[in-house]
Amino acid sequence: MLVPSHRKRRTREFPNDFRTPQARLSDPSSARNGPRSDGFDVHCGSPREADVTTTPENDALLRRSLPGEVLVGRYEVVRSLGMGSRGVVFEAHDRETGEQVAIKMLRRTSSGDDEAVERFRREAMVLLDLRHPSIVGVMDLGVTDDGHFFLVMELISGRSLAARLEQQGALEPAALLPIVHDVAEALEVAHRNGVIHRDIRPQNILLPDTQAVGVPRAKVVDFGLAKVTWDAPMTGAGVSLGMLRYAAPEQLGAASEVDQRADVYSLGVVIFEALAGPAVLPFPEGAGMLEAVLAGEALPLSARRPGLGDALDAVIARAIARDREARHGSARELARAFGAALTDPPPASDP
Q1: Element of type H or E holding 94
Q2: Nearest alpha carbon to residue 25 among 245, 239, 223
Q3: From CA 230, how far away is CA 227, in angstroms rounded?
Q4: Residues 4, 230: contact at Cβ < 8 Å?
Q5: Interval 255-268 mean pLDDT
Q6: 111, 109, 112, 141: which is closest to 125 by C-alpha?
Q7: N or C terminus: fewer CB in 10 A for the chain?
Q8: What distance in Å separates the CA atoms of residue 51 and residue 47, rounded to the nearest whole number?
Q9: Buried b or exposed e, range 299-319, using 16+ CB within 10 angstroms
Q10: Is 101:90 a contact under the CB 8 Å cutoff?
């Protein structure tokens, strides 16, 4: 069991309006590769298409993201990156640091929505305390004079792992290895700081375009559903249809029972899908999925993609074991086992 390290003092306190409500977080619109469950359709600089109804509130928010607009006297808007049901993300220039940043802003109607505000507050609180190259960074937060909550985040050009799988199909194990390594290291830091992500899936793994030495191959985003051991729990936090495909069996029960091995399980499912192909998971689709997850009735990787060897089958089977005591003890342990399995040659094909 990982023991949370001493938390760093936050350099900036949250606005008083960032309150902690009692809300259920469940959004069926996030099924498959659809919109993210938090209602934002942009990953910190990686835009995706979003179908947003034109309303006075949306129009006002879009005007906020017009080039030349300046937020709180510091952040000058460059361009809109996209809009979702709960807000907008745009690129801005930080006049104090000279850096380009991404600003994630809630709609005012969502700012009055306890569920949306709590997710926003939770993500800000977690990311301000976590610092790692493979975790998207948050630099600032606040409220505009007309009541929009916003986060100032690291601007990243790239696409999600989900988009890459959709566009290019299944990955080769060697190509997946650095992605798994970076995600595992990000989770290791989170877990040591008492944070369980609880929503690891391809949509929440961003792959930066830059492939230079020292630049991570993957960044973990969206900590809005994180379980934080040093903060009040989000009572009634639900699991959406999109999350169900990657959720550990214990996530479907009492939230207090979830520990870092739930993220290990989710990463194991992500590895399976990345090797087998987009939306190809170890469980049946449809009505039988929930029963299969709860019963631990997972198919081996070789049933979906033969020829990768028994060692990979064994690593994934352990990662997604129904009994969490049987799983790898940490994300780093899973990543190391995955790397070691690649040195085990698959059986030769019959002539």
Answers
A1: strand 87-94
A2: 239
A3: 9
A4: yes
A5: 88
A6: 141
A7: C
A8: 13
A9: bbbbebeeebbebbeebbbbb
A10: no
Question: String of b and e for 146-171 (b: at least 16 CB within 10 Å)?
Answer: eebbbbbbbbbebbbbbbbbeeeebb
pLDDT tens track for 133-145: 999 888 888 888 8
| pLDDT per position as a tens digit, 154-204 | 898 899 999 999 999 999 999 999 999 999 999 999 999 999 999 999 999
Beta bridge partners of 150: 105, 142
Strands 100-106 and 138-143 turn out to be unpaired
Long-range contacts of 137-146 (CB under 8 A, 24+ apart): 139/94, 139/101, 140/12, 141/12, 141/14, 141/15, 142/15, 142/72, 143/15, 143/17, 144/64, 144/71, 144/72, 144/105, 146/108
Question: Residue 34: what pLDDT?
Answer: 34
The catalytically annotated residue of 27, 199, 222, 263 is 199
Give the domains, in start order, of the chain with CATH numbers. Answer: 33-154 (3.30.200.20), 158-341 (1.10.510.10)
Check residue 119 and report its DSSP letter. H
Residue type at 298 in one-letter notation? A
Which residues pair with residue 324 across a beta bridge?
none
Phi, psi of 62 (to 5 degrees): -65, -35
Q: What are phi and psi of 289, to 5 degrees?
A: -65, -50
pTM: 0.78
- Report, in angstroms and rounded to the nearest whole number, the Rg of the chain calculated over CA atoms: 20
Determine whether 113 is an active site residue.
Answer: no
- Paired residues of 100 in beta bridges: 93
Check: CB of residue 336 under 8 Å from CB of residue 319. no
